Amino acid sequence: MKKIIMFVSILGILFSAPVLAKAAENSEQDNHTFTQPFQNTTTSLTGTAVKATTYFTKIDYWDVKKATFNLNYQITQLENQQTSDVTVAVNGVKIHSWRPENKNGRQTETIDLPLNLLSGSNTLTIEGQIVNYEGDDGYRLIETPANWLTVYDGSNVNFQYDLKLPEDTIHSFYNHFVGADTIANGQSVVSVPENASDVELEAASYGISGFSRIITTSEQYLQLTSWTKNQTQPYQVIVATYKNLPEPYKKDIDEKKVENDAVIKFLNAKDQHILLVTSKNEKALLNAGRYLANQELMTQTEKKETYISENTDTFTSSLEFDGKIPFTTTGDQLIGAYHQEQVYFVSLPTDYNNINGSSVDLAIKYADNLDFDTSLVTVYVNDVPVGSQKLTASGANGDRVQLKFPDNLEVADSFVLKVAFDLNVKSPEVIRNGNTPWASIENTSSAFIKSEDTDVALFENYPNIFIANNAFSDLAIVLPEKMTDEYFKALSNVLNLLGNYAKDNTGNLTFYKEDISKRDLGSHNLIILGTPKDNTVVKNMNKDLYFTYNNSLSTFVSNEKLSIEPEYGKTLGTAQLMFSPFNSDLTALVLTSPSAEGVYLASTQLNSQKSVAIYKGDLIAVDSNYRRYDYRFKQEASHEKKNSLTSQIENNLNVFVYGLILLIVLAIVATSIYFISRKYADNTKGGN
């Protein structure tokens, strides 16, 4: 009997094991949700007919079960509910129409998206007829400034999906590691050993900078941390020299093969997916870090391990952005008489901003039955009119609109471009006869955005001040003696934004923790983190800081910009951007506070374009309640102008000195002539 029971038990275990394994697998795979916000700002559309276009992405390792579009909008309170309507289309296919309610405040429309219409990259179009009352002729819809629809920036697409686990390739791991859902859920991390060396930090930083370059989430960021056995993130990159590689993973590495080369190896476990990067050769390890930062190489590596020597080509391809931004890949058509609007939400490369000379180039076609005495097209950028052009009978089959942006119009990292047509007709009979007016915007339409590098040491130019030729500009990061969790989080914030701007992986990034010479300090642009008690460079720079410490280095003291109570000064974190005191031709950013928590607090203001965009000065201060200060201390913020001013002062000083010498010489000569003349006069008088 016992044998039978034991046999049955064994069978139960054998049959239940796959079920348990399947359940464990499903716990990671099943029932995921992700909300993808649109990149647009809140935008108001005006006219009897309006249209806006935006974009969203479906990630390739999702098995999507449901996709929902949530439109957050507000419509004129005067709209006619019987004639106003809004329609949504996905990839050119109309899927949903409704009549908005006539009420105050925001409204939300929830729309299920047909899954068969979705691809990797998707276009979503919102168009509508916004009418406040109907004309007497029953055909013309009266247009007034009260015809408007506002689309708010809270609009999004929500996905419900099952996760496809990574395959046994570096490429598959990479896609999951940098996926928007993985980053948003805090499931990715880059780790280095405890008490990591400068080389290990440098190699890991190349990797995290390259990863952040392609990460699309705007609220969550990739973290660099010190490895512990308790790390729970399912996707991990571990960068270490072989001797410092965590013991659980040494058995997975062939020690002889990493004597001279580095290895990148993917361990695809059930609960965690680990990418090991290690070598005994420090130069090879640094080159492996650059390999991590190269999206092309990582997505081409269809195997679970690859070896990199110190001579392996890992540099990113140089695809120069020429400033040309297309609006649409397929073209857009507006159908209907009178005022019609098409809106585009345009994203720019991170280091581009408008300077004088930017322009828009529209290729358009339109119906030939318009009233060409009154019909025109107008272009707006962020609701600022760029210019208008009349429509003509000769241009109906192909017209060009070329307009320059207004001078000093800042467009930051994105902008809203609105193309408004006034498609007027001379008589309603034109519409009655079925000859509906129309206009189209061709796919060759684009904006040309000029930009230039500047050396202005202000936060409005950060982090561009540390980027040259799309790569790190000989940058050194000076860290405290001991890296705490707060310092790792602060360093992560700094690297995420720097990596977002550095398109190439060829720049130099050097780390120092102690024993750094003045010669080294004067040879690099610097980012310095720490308190004056754990970073001797900060301590020695106290006299050069804008916010300085007291004699005991325990709090900030009052200055020309802010009176600081001693206890309050202990809560402040500061980011101070200055000409380097070790080499005035270079730049230094000092993230410092009386505490490590304050240093991290200051770094939170520099972790994204959105965060840093609000600051215009050269000092940021933030307290524990997130009260923020923005001050400018430097009168001249440009290296070039500063040096020019210095040269001018030196030249003027030389002129003054030479002029003074000349005056002294002239005075001596004049005095000599005077006395000689008197003596001559006295002698002459005596002779007489």
From TrEMBL:
Major localization class: membrane
Name of one Pfam family that matches: BcsB
A cellular-component GO term for this protein: plasma membrane
Keyword terms of this UniProt record: Cell membrane, Membrane, Signal, Transmembrane, Transmembrane helix
TM region positions: 655-676
InterPro entries given in the database record: Cell_synthase_bac
GO biological process: UDP-alpha-D-glucose metabolic process
Location in the cell: Cell membrane
Highest taxon in the source lineage: Bacteria
Membrane topology (UniProt): Single-pass membrane protein
Signal peptide positions (record): 1-21
Protein name per its UniProtKB record: Cellulose synthase catalytic subunit
